[in-house]
């Protein structure tokens, strides 16, 4: 992906064209039937975050679909991130020169609406690609990480002392969604 002035103009135009008319509402984990999540494979803790989310969602019998953004030049084989029909990978070959993902990969993720959508990306790599997917996806409740310059989330989370490791954030999000439902009874 080429990062220059023209690229940023095109990216802003694409995001404006795909404006999100999202009206969020809180969905507790116990009443969720489907969940989507996005992780960046280049971030330390991404593989653990996928394991945490898969286990929690399987335990609660929630259908899920995940996207692993892997824009590294040489990506080591990470079976937990790249395996299974419920896990889609967007690599360097799946995006064009300004970061727009292939429609086939994007539509596979966005074809069904989610009850909850979690964005665990924190780095600066691939933010346009993630923002584009977030705008295309339909979800009742969107959770993202703090520090992002987007207002597409219903709730943002951050770690202690700025520690935004995806695995810790995934555990915190799941615990929060479980505890709020339990306390509201």
Give me a quick take on this structure.
With 185 residues, this protein is α/β, with parallel strands linked by helices. It has helices spanning 5-17, 46-59, 79-82, 103-110, 127-136, 166-183; strands at 34-40, 63-70, 87-91, 114-119, 139-145, 155-157. α2 packs parallel to α6 (166-183).
Entry keywords:
19% strand; globular
Explain this structure to me?
This protein is of the alpha/beta class. It contains 6 helices and 6 strands. It has helices at 5-17, 46-59, 79-82, 103-110, 127-136, 166-183; strands spanning 34-40, 63-70, 87-91, 114-119, 139-145, 155-157. It has a 6-stranded parallel beta sheet with strand order 3-2-1-4-5-6, with helices on both faces. Helix 2 packs parallel to helix 6. It is globular, with a radius of gyration of 16 Å.
Number of DSSP helical runs: 6
Structural class: alpha/beta
Return the average pLDDT rounded to an integer: 84
Count all strands and give the number: 6
Low-confidence stretches: none
Provide the helix percentage. Answer: 25-40%
Task: Give the overall silhouette.
Answer: globular
Major beta sheet, specifics? 6 strands, parallel
Strand content: 15-25%
Present the secondary structure layout.
Blueprint: H1 5-17, E1 34-40, H2 46-59, E2 63-70, H3 79-82, E3 87-91, H4 103-110, E4 114-119, H5 127-136, E5 139-145, E6 155-157, H6 166-183
Parallel strand pairs: 1-2, 1-4, 2-3, 4-5, 5-6
Helix pairs in contact: 2-6
């Amino acid at each position: 992906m080429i990062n220059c002035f023209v690229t940023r103009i095109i990216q802003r135009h694409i995001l404006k064209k795909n404006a999100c008319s999202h009206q969020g509402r809180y969905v507790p984990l116990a009443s969720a039937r489907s969940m989507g999540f996005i992780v960046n494979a280049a971030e330390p803790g991404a593989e653990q975050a996928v394991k945490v989310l898969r286990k929690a969602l399987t335990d609660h019998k929630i259908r899920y679909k995940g996207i692993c953004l892997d824009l590294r030049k040489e990506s080591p084989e990470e079976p937990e991130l790249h395996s299974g029909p419920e896990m889609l990978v967007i690599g360097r070959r799946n995006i064009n020169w300004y970061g727009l993902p292939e429609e086939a990969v994007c539509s596979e993720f966005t074809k069904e609406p989610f009850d909850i959508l979690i964005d665990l990306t924190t780095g600066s790599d691939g933010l346009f690609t993630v923002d584009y997917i977030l705008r295309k996806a339909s979800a009742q409740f969107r959770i993202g990480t703090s520090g992002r310059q987007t207002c597409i989330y219903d709730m943002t989370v951050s770690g202690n002392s700025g520690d935004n490791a995806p695995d810790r954030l995934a555990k915190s999000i799941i615990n929060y969604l479980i505890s709020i439902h339990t306390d509201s009874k």
